[in-house]
Amino acid sequence: MDHDAKKQGAITLDPFRGRRLAGADGPRLVRGRSLAPLKQAMTRDQSLLRHFLAAIAYRTAKALRDAPPAFGSFDAGHHARTPRELVRHMSGVINYAVGTLQEPRPVLADGATYEAEIDRLFALLRELSDAIGRASDLGDAIAERLLQGPLSDAMTHAGQLALLRRLSGSPLPPENFFDAAIDPDRLGMDQAAPVSPDEVWPQAPKGWIPPGRR
After folding, report:
1. What's the whole-number mean pLDDT along residues 65-87?
2. Fewer CB atoms inside 10 Å of the end CB: C or N, the chain?
3. Looking at domain 44-192, which of 1.25.40, 1.20.120, 1.10.443, 1.10.286 is its CATH number?
């Protein structure tokens, strides 16, 4: 879900609780919390949220990497979003999540190209990860709401992108994600190779070679 920032003069309204945030001339509190340097020791909530963001990045990159040139505009029918529209929506929910930790943000405009949409999504994932790392007193309640809301939404859409790869005739080879090399500091398209790729793929396209035989 995308949310517009709401302004009242120099005062911004928090979209979740209506809490007033000080304007530029006053002291700045973000949901009553201070922002700290990213390199400080993190709480378990911060570490888990950043790990989950990295898992979103890993799965999204896998779904988008090596896709056919026309994949961005693939239409599965039944009014389903295209891959480009899904990436755009994922950026919207991640942008909203950043706004819950900083100041509420306006709705994103459409990117100029499919490639620009992809670049923006990964940039927003990095921005949110940094914001979480700096939220020195991030409480359980907001961590839970981030997880149940925008982060779960984004992970769902990463799965939809993978499904659209199969429907478009370019399925993704399976792997055991339990063993995946998820790195909280690796939030772009450049991800580690699968640690435990499947050797058996009943639905494999013609010509697929198991990893152990390559």
Report:
1. 97
2. C
3. 1.20.120
